[in-house]
C-alpha cells in the first residue's frame, strides 16, 4: 500500500527539528503497524497552482492507494507589490477541484486536511519575505472552501484551523515541534481509519 501526502512546507515538516513534522511522524507510526509506503511530497512555498504541475507525474510513479492533500495556506497570501490577494476564491476552488479530478485517476481514497491559523503579529508581513502577508481571515476563507468542497463531494476533511495557538508556531506561520505533534495526533486516527478499510478490501 502507498500513501502520497501532497503539500507545502508545513507538510514537509518545517519547524520540527526533532522528528521532521507531522507527515514524517505518520510515516514512522504507520511503518510499525502496517506494510505501507508513505511519501511526503510537501515542497516549501507550494500553492495549488504549483501542485497541479506535479501531482499527476508524482502519483503515476508511486501508484497511491490513498492521496492526502494539505495545501492552500500559501494561496491565501496577500501580495504587497500588486496590492492584491495571490489568488481569487473562485480560482482557488477551481484548483481544488482540478486536484481532486487528477487524484481520482489513481484512487477513490482522497483526504483533504484544512489550514492552520497564523500569528498575525509575525505574518503581517512575514520577515523573510516582506512582500507577503498571511491573515487568519483569508486563511479561514480558504479553509471553508476546502471544507465545503469536501462536503459536496463526500470526501474526508480533517480540520486543523482550531488546533494550534501562537505558542505552537515557531515563526508565526510554521508549527514548532509541539504544533506538529498536535497535528500528528489529530490527523493520525483519521488516516488510520481509511487504511484499515483499505486493508479489509
Compile the SSE list and pairings.
Blueprint: E1 2-7, H1 9-12, H2 22-31, E2 37-42, H3 48-52, H4 55-62, E3 66-70, E4 78-79, E5 84-85, H5 89-103, E6 109-113, H6 120-123, E7 132-133, H7 136-152, E8 156-158, H8 177-200
Parallel strand pairs: 1-2, 1-3, 3-6, 6-8
Antiparallel strand pairs: 4-5, 4-7
Helix pairs in contact: 2-8, 5-7
CATH architectural arrangement: 3-Layer(aba) Sandwich
Q: Number of DSSP helices? A: 8
Largest sheet: 5 strands, parallel
Largest sheet, order of strands side by side?
A: 2-1-3-6-8
Structural class: alpha/beta
Number of domains: 1
Radius of gyration from the alpha-carbon trace, in angstroms: 16 Å
Strand-and-helix sequence, N→C? EHHEHHEEEHEHEHEH
Low-confidence stretches: none
Number of beta strands: 8
Shape: globular
* Overall CATH class: Alpha Beta
Q: What is the straight-line distance between the termini?
A: 12 Å
Mean pLDDT reading: 97
The percentage helix is 40-55%
% residues in beta strands: 15-25%
Amino acid at each position: 500500500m502507498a500513501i502520497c501526502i501532497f503539500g507545502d512546507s508545513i507538510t514537509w515538516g518545517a519547524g520540527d527539528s526533532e522528528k521532521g513534522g507531522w507527515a514524517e511522524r505518520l510515516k514512522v507510526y504507520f511503518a510499525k503497524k502496517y506494510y505501507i509506503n508513505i511519501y511526503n511530497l510537501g515542497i516549501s512555498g507550494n500553492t495549488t497552482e504549483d501542485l497541479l504541475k506535479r501531482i499527476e507525474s508524482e502519483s503515476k510513479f508511486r501508484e497511491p492507494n490513498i492521496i492526502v492533500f494539505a495545501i492552500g495556506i500559501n494561496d491565501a497570501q496577500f501580495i504587497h507589490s500588486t496590492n492584491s490577494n495571490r489568488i481569487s476564491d473562485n480560482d482557488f476552488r477551481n484548483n481544488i477541484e482540478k486536484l481532486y479530478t487528477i487524484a481520482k485517476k489513481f484512487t477513490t481514497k482522497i483526504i483533504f486536511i484544512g489550514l492552520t491559523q497564523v500569528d498575525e503579529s509575525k505574518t503581517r508581513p512575514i520577515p523573510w519575505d516582506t512582500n507577503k502577508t498571511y491573515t487568519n481571515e483569508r486563511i479561514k476563507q480558504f479553509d471553508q472552501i476546502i471544507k465545503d468542497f469536501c462536503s459536496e463531494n463526500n470526501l474526508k476533511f480533517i480540520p486543523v484551523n482550531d488546533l494550534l495557538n501562537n505558542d505552537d508556531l515557531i515563526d508565526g506561520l510554521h508549527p514548532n515541534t509541539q504544533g506538529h505533534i498536535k497535528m500528528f495526533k489529530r490527523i493520525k486516527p483519521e488516516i488510520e481509519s481509511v487504511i484499515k478499510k483499505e486493508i479489509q478490501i
